[in-house]
Specification:
single chain; alpha+beta; 2 domains; four-stranded antiparallel beta sheet; two-stranded antiparallel sheet; 9 helices; globular
């Protein structure tokens, strides 16, 4: 069964299958649920809806909530407030990084030291493929999710917010290399030779400052020749871009 998207697969029978975590066993092992549809978009919408419903049905009035349970309730709470792509990133961070480590902790037992230990582990050997640690850019993104969940728990009066702190790792300051005007001219000359879609995309990026995900998501309807304007209405996640590049290569 070839994998197409985050927890979405194309089955041999032609249907699409989406997998989501619907709970955890007593040993903190994930228990999965499944949704099916005829198209990728349909199964993706079903998947997001099922993940959201998991949080809707959680009772947060008790004092023995686990971090995984309050995380799913937080997901439901923010599901209508953020873009679908942002929501998918939150799910990925939770399922791949946060829940496997912190999910089994009782909310009233979790400490700042536990979160610091989580951060150190992620920076050391935190990649999903276990091939090294997360960068000082990726780790803060994951910690921001944890911080938002803690804030939600405090708002619901489940914890005292001051009792849990999230310390972000210091990022190394790297020098930014900027091409000179002369180098830019040489670069432009190269791009304009034997023009193709890839070189055109780089030129648009060079003159507009658009991100690669925004460039790849552009459609003809977003471009107005008469007004000399480009409308940016959507983006493509970097993982989808990398998969496309691998297929081209």
């Amino acid at each position: 069964m070839p994998r197409i998207g985050n927890n979405i697969y194309k089955r041999k029978d032609g249907r699409w299958e989406g997998r989501f975590i619907k709970g955890y066993s007593e040993s903190s092992r994930a228990v999965y649920g499944f949704v099916y549809a005829k198209t990728y978009r349909e199964v993706k919408n079903k998947l997001l809806l099922s993940q959201s419903e998991q949080g809707e049905n959680i009772d947060i009035s008790g004092s023995k909530l686990t971090f995984a349970e309050i995380s799913r309730k937080w997901l439901f709470n923010i599901s209508l407030k953020v873009k679908q792509s942002t929501y998918a990133k939150y799910i990925y961070a939770l399922e791949k990084h946060i829940i496997p480590v912190l999910g089994g902790y009782r909310l009233n037992k979790l400490t700042s030291t536990d979160i610091d230990s989580f951060t150190k582990a992620k920076l050391t050997l935190g990649r999903v493929d276990k091939n090294g640690g997360l960068s000082t850019k990726t780790a803060p993104d994951i910690l921001s999710v944890i911080k938002s969940i803690i804030g939600f728990a405090a708002k619901e009066k489940l914890i005292n917010k001051s009792s849990l702190t999230v310390t972000y790792p210091k990022s190394a300051q790297s020098e930014i290399n900027i091409i000179s005007r002369q180098e830019q001219v040489v670069f432009e000359d190269y791009l304009c030779q034997d023009m193709d879609l890839y070189k055109l995309g780089i030129l648009v990026c060079l003159y507009t400052g658009l991100r690669i995900g925004e460039i790849c998501a552009l459609q003809w309807k977003d471009i107005s020749i008469s007004k000399y304007a480009i409308s940016v209405t959507q983006t493509i996640h970097p993982r989808r871009i990398l998969r496309s590049c691998r297929r081209v290569i």
